[in-house]
Amino acid sequence: MNEAEAKPEQKTRADEIRRAFDARYGGGAGLQTAPWSATIGLLLSHRSVRAYRPDQLPADTLETLIAAAQSAATSSNLQTWSAVAVTRPDLKAELARAANRQRHVEQCPLFLVWLADLSRLERTLREEGAPAEALPFLEVFLTAAIDAALAAQNAVVAAESLGLSTVYIGALRNDPERVAEILALPSATFALFGLCVGYAANPDAGAVKPRLPQAAVLHREQYSVGDERALRAAYDAELEAFSRRVGMGAQNWTGRVKERIGAPGSLHGRERLKPTLRRLGFPLR
Ligand SMILES: Cc1cc2nc3c(=O)[nH]c(=O)nc-3n(C[C@H](O)[C@H](O)[C@H](O)COP(=O)(O)O)c2cc1C
User: Fold this and answer.
1) Any residues with Cβ below 6 Å from ligand 1, and which?
2) Farthest-apart Cα atoms in the chain, separation
3) What distance in Å separates the CA atoms of residue 7 and residue 10, rounded to the nearest whole number?
4) Which of 44, 46, 48 to mutate to test the pocket of ligand 1 (most atoms within 8 A of CB)?
5) Which ligand 1 atom is nearest residue 149's CA?
6) Torsion sign (Cα): 71, 73, 76, 81
7) Dihedrals φ, ψ of 158, to 5°?
8) Which of 76, 86, 129, 172 is such that its CA lies 20 to 30 A from the CA of 222?
9) Whole-prediction pTM
10) What is the Cα–Cα distance from 110 to 87, expressed in whole angstroms?
């Protein structure tokens, strides 16, 4: 069927798909007939938001987000994560200070802190008088971190489906011991990242940030570097144009990689994470 023969609703759907892919990849993705659903439309339109209205969230929103989070798959059903919901202005202010003074942490009505939490397993086994010999291994910490990330992302999708906005806050790892103090965390818990949740100050602000071309991240059957250099150059141009459009100067991806990964100082204290984790009750054997 050519475009002239397409029914109006088919044409609208094809336009919606093309617009969504173009936004995500910066134009030219050329997909119009991809399998489509409202959920996929929501996922492709994700954007982080860094300015919030003070409005409170409707009743039971927190519980709904956590139910979505708990619906994520979890390794061996161990459920080795917890979340701390912070709404108190004094605690949010302290957390913002620990996270490089990011204003949105104070501004958002709900700040969720996602924990790798092995303390619950530790307590369970202690109460049972059972050994916990696998607990100190890196693998178990990694499992908890993976489970927490999957849970958090479910909460993000749920929030966005309700018209709420979010932004993750990895800067909580700049000073994990201070965060543990602020939130009264027990040993064997670690605040992996925070999540601002609320209503965008300007719902029309922000734009879908283009990602690397699929060919750079999707390897078919076996890993192949392919024309990564050309793909990177194209993406640099795309992201630079995007950054100019949204008033963020002329940032490109290669520049960002150099800035973040060139020297340990750019990790803002996170380069000392291994000893910090040990002090917080994760031996990481
Ligand atoms: C684990 C994680 C930690 C992040 N930490 C921060 C942060 O501390 N501050 C911030 O403004 N954005 C943070 N972000 C948001 C990213 O900068 C953002 O997702 C990325 O630039 C892509 O933009 P988009 O989410 O709008 O598509 C974080 C994202 C992730 C996944």
Assistant:
1) 46-48, 50, 102, 167-171, 193, 209
2) 73
3) 5
4) 48
5) 1
6) negative
7) -60, -45
8) 76
9) 0.96
10) 5
In terms of DSSP H, where are the helices of the chain? 8-25, 38-44, 61-70, 89-98, 103-107, 119-128, 138-161, 176-182, 214-217, 228-245, 253-261, 273-279
Query: 140-172 burial, b if ≥16 CB within 10 A, otherwise e?
Result: bbebbbbbbbbbbbbbbbbbbeeebbbbbbebb
Distance between CA atoms of 152 and 195, rounded to whole angstroms?
8
Q: Are 198 and 121 in contact (CB under 8 A)?
A: no
Quote the CA–CA distance of 255 and 166 in Å, as a whole number.
Answer: 25
- 118 neighbors 280 (Cβ within 8 angstroms): no
Identity of residue 148? A
Question: What is each CA distance from 143 to 45, 120, 185, 263, in whole angstroms?
Answer: 29, 14, 19, 28
Residue 216 alpha carbon to ligand 1 centre in Å: 20
Res. 1 pLDDT band, cuts 50 70 90: very low
Structure-block tokens of residue 137: 């291994």
User: Which region among 84-88, 205-209, 234-238 has the lowest average model confidence (pLDDT)?
Assistant: 205-209
| C-alpha span between 258 and 275 (Å, rounded) | 26
| C-alpha span between 114 and 84 (Å, rounded) | 7
List the structure tokens of 202.
Answer: 């300007």
Task: Quickly state the pLDDT bin for 251 (edges 50, 70, 90).
Answer: confident
Ligand 1 atom with the shortest distance to the CA of 46: 27
